[in-house]
Amino acid sequence: MSTPSSLLTSAGLIGGFAVARATKHRHWGGVVAAGAGLGAMEACRRRTGVAPALALGAAYAAALTGSHPLAKKIGAWPSVLAVTGATAVAAHLLAKRRA
Question: Sign of the C-alpha dihedral, residues 67, 75, 20, 68?
């Protein structure tokens, strides 16, 4: 049984931000985020195929980029948590096996 893609996306977004903030090196946070995002896409691909995995990758990338302007409005951690929640829901829905 593989790790759910929603858990991987959440770990990547929250963990990536936490690592970047703790180390003061954004690129280390990017490594964490990229690794988790690729893992989530692979878990999704194995379960439902290439198209949903690519859609999940696009949603994840949008969350990463969208969190920055959102942070200017609501703060860094609230922004990360908001995009994480939205991405986790998307990951869950995209990785569901179709009956």
Answer: positive
- Please report where in the chains the tokens 């995002």 appear, as a residue: 37
pLDDT in tens, 56-75: 999 999 999 999 999 999 99
**Cα–Cα distance between 51 and 15 in angstroms, integer?**
26
Burial of 50 (0-12, 13-18, 19+ CB in 10 A): exposed
* Burial (0-12, 13-18, 19+ Cβ within 10 Å), 43: buried
The Cα–Cα gap between 11 and 3 comes to: 11
Output the pTM of the full model.
Answer: 0.91
